[in-house]
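My current task is to audit a protein record that another person submitted. My question to you is simply how this chain folds and whether the tokens agree. This is what I was given:
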Amino acid sequence: MLSKVFLGSLLAVAFAAPIAQNDEAGWQPAEGSVATCDKASDKIISFTVGPQKEDVLNDACAAMMPGCAYQERLASDVVCAQVLEWPLDGPKNSTQHANVEDATGNKLSGWNVQFSVTPASQTEGSPGVFWTREECYGYFDQLVSKQEPDGCFNTVGSGVGSLKVGGSTSLKDTVFDIKIVKRA
């Protein structure tokens, strides 16, 4: 009985700890995930000056996921269930401000970055598609941080493109996409 109480306490502490959002957290993309970069784009995303990558990616994911996935952003009186996987019940998108440059590194004004996630089609009666905040952050981070064939980063900055999730989880065939769009 005492071991169950100890184990339960240990798990409660582990789940209450903030979730790290970087490569050191041990997150890995599903095997067989494939990035496709938009080679026709003449624009890149730069995280060198201005909004930092971690902030932009976390803001994009927080905008697309349920509020309780980013409970630390909610009012202190909001109570959330301890859920790690959230339903991805349809396409999601979020437009964020980030530095956009041309291929030679000159800053361009009037542009934003659009993040979108499109779950794979589900058959009737399937349990649905679920994702974690680590997966949201991780797949977008892979696109902007890794070089081809794993992502769309090049020597100048982060290119744009999409990543199709591989593996065998419910996220299989879900598409994470990053585009540069005109600011409204």
Remarks:
- The CA atoms of residues 49 and 172 lie 34 Å apart.
